[in-house]
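INTERNAL AUDIT FORM
Audit reference: QA-55
Scope: verify that the stored structure record matches its stored sequence.
Auditor: D.O.
Record contents follow.
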Amino acid sequence: MCSLLAVKIMANTKPSNLPTSIDETLALLNGADYVADRALATVLYLSLKMNRPLFLEGEAGVGKTEIAKVLASELDRPLIRLQCYEGLDVSSAVYEWNYAAQMVEIRMREASGETNRDAMEDSVFSERFLIRRPLLQALEQVNGRAPVLLIDELDRTDEAFEAFLLEVLSDYQVTIPELGTIKAKEPPIVIITTNRTREIHDALKRRCLYHWVDYPDAERELEIVRLKVPGADANLSREVVDYVQRLRTLELFKNPGIAETLDWATALMELDKIALDPQAISDTLGVLLKYQDDIAQIQGSEGAEVLRAVKAEASANLAAAGAGVSI
């Protein structure tokens, strides 16, 4: 029989570099140019404090994945990303054996006259032939620090994979039949994202803290654009945000997210635009919208009406600023 790998005991001590308050968590996010509200900072702080996975749900492009990247960068920890997809299984997500190397080992032992089957089995099913995939990698420290584990777009997988995750998220451990149970010395920081293309089972959600990441309001989105696209004209940035905010009130197949707002502002800046105009919008709608039906809708009278409203708002702001009125 294979000798069992010694089970690693989870340490009770917590890393010292984690934020110690909601304000520190907010400052951590803002320090990486991630403009967050206090509700997000609060649930993130609690997730870190309680060693619980954070389940982030929301439309695509609202900044869910970026939160894990910011944590890894600001806390100086490795980021391990499991990108989910239909058909994802244990061999791709957790571990698999290096079968080719195992076969070579068996042939070499046979050629040397090895006859002890138990010894041969112990040899080929050892850690030397184990290929670690993201979930197993996340249970191991790197330079004395637990990593940040990003399980991205979990809704793309099936319920069978969700069920497997329960052991990982409950006890931060993985059971490998040939080796035994591998348990994290220190739990990783776990961020799970979903675009809500299907519902995730309650059993998994119960193991997490939950937060809905919504589209930002106009003020916060403008701040994001100013931080991420600093070269854009101030007037253009405001009109871009106003235009996108109004688009999200229409019945589009897919509303533009923050990522699309930033891409659009960047594209218009590269075209040396300082304000929106019908031609610029028509030429660059493919940066902002990703479905032809939505593009056709905005290229028509509905899009023209949105632009008129944006320009009217800009004129009102300009007049108010000239009169010394704060908007």
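Auditor finding: record pair retrieved intact. Residues 1-16 have pLDDT under 50 and may be disordered.
Action required: none
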